[in-house]
């Protein structure tokens, strides 16, 4: 199994963060092509034709999103979502750290398609190294005239600011990101209006993930037909897959969409440790419902994952081997979403809390058979009932774990209860009672 | 209306976890501070003003401004909030509302350094909790040691961010060495951090 390196083709080049190295490898030529040889409409058309789908989780067609931006003279914005916080995802970190100019070029190309003149890269505050690299790269690009007023003497002006978040998962949600960028608490907004019509500072705003924007210069350079020739069906192009958890070689791998999940987990990441088997895996970050070893031969595409009841999401594969007890894992997952829930919508705020409390009860040995039904019911009451999908992001994987592994939950509950009973009876103040009972 | 005496009684009751202390009902709400009345270190003022200049709306500078003030004061103390409010010309309440939302902004004294130990799903599968427990036992002074959401470095799990430097994989028996290095002001585990020279 070999990778198909397109986005990561030059990633190991020393000093790629420096502009002259990036340019020597052909960088910023696609930007010139988009500025001088193509009209903004042609750039937009090429992105639409490519079938490039958002790489941040939702998988919405990037060109279509850009085409929703109204035409005409007004303040329009481009936001790059670099708040990569999805547990299991670390692909954007690699791109920004090693190849920051590709992202800057992608932002310029995106801004041409959307007609935006001001852009922001919203990077999570924990990515200190990457934000420093981006800051230096943006300064370099300004000095060379690749950013700012009338880029290289063309009609297009574009300013780019690197904005650091301060640690909140919800800021990766596009409207939460907008509120955070406006200097508020990162609460998601009611949609519609969608950001394409009313986003940042109430202006039309195009929001795209880092990897999505990094694809844009390649599409402009090599054409939509080339991009469509990669991948399978409506999952065009390549995708960087972050594999983590119980595998021998965790890391980022770039694949053509459509290779099998088995090839990714076993071929590239080396499979689970010696003597272990896969119990389940999250195909698209911790928000994606889990799949089991029966799904290993599915092609890794948006469609196949959706059909199997999960999603490709950020394509962050977290592998769980058969040595892992699932109740503590589910609890860990639920605790994360409880902490990160912004508290705006009741089903998410209360539902994440209920889930954690019920799982804690089960783990302590105080669970009752009803608890698993309650757990299931709570998840059902969260899904689709909130402004954003944070609640769903907990409810879907928890529901899927219950669906596939209910016997294990029941067994864990039973064992925990027996253990708790034994501990209670062995307490000194009760020892005499137990003895009397035995006699 | 409640008597003032009742309020004192109310305050004497310990609050359950997750509840905020009641506001001071006997005081007027704080207004936008008069810039002439608040002393702000020159470098902090310059940094906040530079941030404000980057955005079409000055409110967008809130997060970078609070982060800058935190670097000066160690946390978003009432004094730090007052200084940011004076430069940005916003109310302290607005800044508190923002500061309490974000994990990296401290609303209680801690630090000044930090060690965020990732205990999210991918790190959990590789025994991150054991490392965190071992490090917590060291009772490291001058550092805020806490569990943190996924830090986006699952290939080096279990890992931790030490003042922004990502280090991993870490095993529980390495916690004493990490603590010792930080106490002595050394860089812990040179060569094993993300982006360290090879």
- Characterize the quaternary organization of these chains: heterodimer
Strand line-up in the sheet with most strands of chain B: 2-1-3-4
Count of helical segments of chain A? Answer: 17
Mean of pLDDT of chain A:
94
Helical proportion of chain B? 25-40%
Dominant shape of chain B: globular
* Largest pleated sheet of chain B: 4 strands, mixed
Structural class of chain B: alpha+beta
- Helix count of chain B equals 8
Q: Major beta sheet of chain A, specifics?
A: 5 strands, mixed
Over the alpha carbons, how many angstroms does the gyration radius of chain A reach?
A: 24 Å
Topology of helices and strands:
The complex is a heterodimer of chains A (439) and B (198).
Chain A lengths: L18 H6 L4 H9 L2 H11 L11 H6 L9 E6 L8 H8 L1 H15 L3 E6 L4 H16 L15 E6 L9 H8 L23 E5 H13 L1 H6 L1 E2 L2 E2 L1 E8 L5 E6 L4 H8 L9 E5 L8 E2 L9 H6 L8 E6 L4 H15 L5 H19 L4 H14 L7 H37 L1 H11 L1
Parallel strand pairs in A: 1-2, 1-4, 2-3, 7-11
Antiparallel strand pairs in A: 5-6, 7-8, 9-10, 9-11
Chain B lengths: L3 H9 L29 H12 L8 H12 L4 H11 L3 H8 L13 E6 L2 H4 L3 H10 L5 E6 L11 E3 L2 E3 L7 H9 L15
Parallel strand pairs in B: 1-2
Antiparallel strand pairs in B: 1-3, 3-4
General description of the model:
- The complex is a heterodimer of chains A (439) and B (198).
- The model of chain A has no long low-confidence stretch (mean pLDDT 94).
- Chain A is built from 17 helices and 11 strands.
- In chain A, 47% of the residues lie in helices and 12% in strands.
- Chain A is an alpha/beta fold and 439 residues long.
- Chain B has 198 residues and is α+β, with helices and mostly antiparallel strands.
- Helices cover 38% and strands 9% of the residues of chain B.
- Chain B contains 8 helices and 4 strands, in the order αααααβααβββα.
- Chain B has helices at residues 4-12, 42-53, 62-73, 78-88, 92-99, 121-124, 128-137, 175-183; strands at 113-118, 143-148, 160-162, 165-167.
- In chain B, a hairpin with a 2-residue loop joins β3 and β4.
- In chain B, α2 (42-53) packs antiparallel against α3 (62-73), α3 (62-73) crosses α4 (78-88) and α7 crosses α8 (175-183).
